[in-house]
């Protein structure tokens, strides 16, 4: 299948999940949440969304494998692999904060080929195909042109499940906050990266993300003219890793600020 065929399949799966999520009932309180890790929750809504996505993907690509946060979180790299977060921003969803998304990416032999990030509360569906650019509602996306940190708005994600690197993150935060026009933390990495692709954020960094958090968003940024690496500059980010993303100037600046000692 071409990258555009894979994108069409990803869109169909994302639309199905979004339709379900719009009408899904939120659990009334913590009694209906499952604690996966400290401050990390999952519900039957997440699991149902992932099941609906998986059904569409398997029907279209029987030989493809699905790696998802809830059903099958073991990453494989050979052949066609779908990398899925059925509800990125579960904590936001549970508190009725409108910053959550469906994230679906297709990789073939470890190379990203197609991506969809569907910001369901705002009805914004971001799409990208390898070599075909990134789009929102048919409009081509481009990363921002802001090169000077003092004019830049930077997205981030706080350490929240594993806080072993909290001191390191706080050093980064202090340096970036002092040098830029602001920092924002919506709480869903897929949306953060989509906003970098759309030029809303000039850059983004986070210290610990899973493949399903960043796969789709990374392709969006790259196809919109941006750069995505880990803190060390490694371009292979389909793993549990740190991430730095942005237009070329802001990516380079963030790398300098966050460079490991």
How would you explain this protein's 3D organization?
This protein is an alpha+beta fold. It has two domains: 3-140, Fructose-1,6-Bisphosphatase, Chain A, domain 1 (2-Layer Sandwich); 149-258, D-Maltodextrin-Binding Protein, domain 2 (3-Layer(aba) Sandwich). It contains seven helices and 14 strands. The chain has helices at 3-23, 44-60, 90-94, 166-179, 189-197, 211-223, 248-258; strands spanning 34-37, 40-42, 65-68, 80-88, 101-108, 111-119, 124-129, 133-136, 139-140, 153-156, 182-184, 203-209, 227-229, 241-246. The radius of gyration is 17 Å and the shape is globular. The chain starts with a helix and ends with a helix.
What keywords describe this structure?
five-stranded mixed beta sheet, single chain, 7 helices, 261 residues, globular, Fructose-1,6-Bisphosphatase, Chain A, domain 1, alpha+beta, 2 domains, seven-stranded mixed beta sheet, D-Maltodextrin-Binding Protein, domain 2
- Net shape: globular
Biggest pleated sheet: 7 strands, mixed
Specify Rg, calculated over alpha carbons.
17 Å
pLDDT under 50 segments (min length 5)?
35-41
Main-sheet strand order equals 3-4-5-6-7-8-9
Structure at a glance:
This protein has 261 residues and is of the alpha+beta class. It has seven helices and 14 strands. The chain folds into two domains: 3-140, Fructose-1,6-Bisphosphatase, Chain A, domain 1, CATH 3.30.540; 149-258, D-Maltodextrin-Binding Protein, domain 2, CATH 3.40.190.80.
């Amino acid at each position: 299948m071409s990258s555009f065929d894979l994108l069409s399949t990803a869109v169909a799966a994302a639309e199905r999940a979004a339709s379900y999520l719009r009408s899904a009932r939120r659990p009334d309180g913590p009694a209906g949440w499952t604690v996966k890790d400290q401050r990390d929750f999952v519900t039957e809504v997440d699991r149902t969304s992932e099941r609906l996505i998986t059904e569409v993907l398997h029907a279209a690509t029987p030989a493809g494998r699905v790696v998802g946060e809830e059903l099958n979180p073991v990453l494989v790299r050979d052949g066609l692999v779908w990398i899925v977060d059925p509800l990125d921003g579960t904590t936001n969803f549970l508190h009725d904060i409108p910053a959550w998304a469906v994230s679906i990416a297709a990789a073939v032999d470890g190379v990203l080929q197609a991506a969809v990030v569907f910001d369901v509360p705002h009805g914004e569906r971001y799409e990208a195909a390898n070599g075909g650019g990134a789009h929102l509602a048919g409009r081509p996306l481009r990363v921002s042109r802001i090169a000077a940190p003092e004019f830049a708005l930077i997205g981030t994600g706080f350490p929240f499940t594993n806080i072993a690197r909290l001191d390191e993150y706080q050093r980064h935060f202090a340096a970036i906050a002092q040098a830029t026009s602001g920092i924002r933390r919506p709480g869903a990495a897929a949306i953060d990266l989509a906003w970098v692709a759309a030029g809303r954020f000039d850059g983004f960094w986070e210290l610990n993300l899973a493949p399903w958090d960043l796969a789709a968003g990374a392709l969006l940024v790259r196809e919109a003219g941006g750069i995505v690496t880990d803190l060390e500059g490694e371009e292979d980010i389909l793993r549990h890793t740190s991430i730095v993303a942005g237009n070329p100037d802001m990516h380079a600046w963030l790398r300098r600020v966050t460079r490991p000692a």
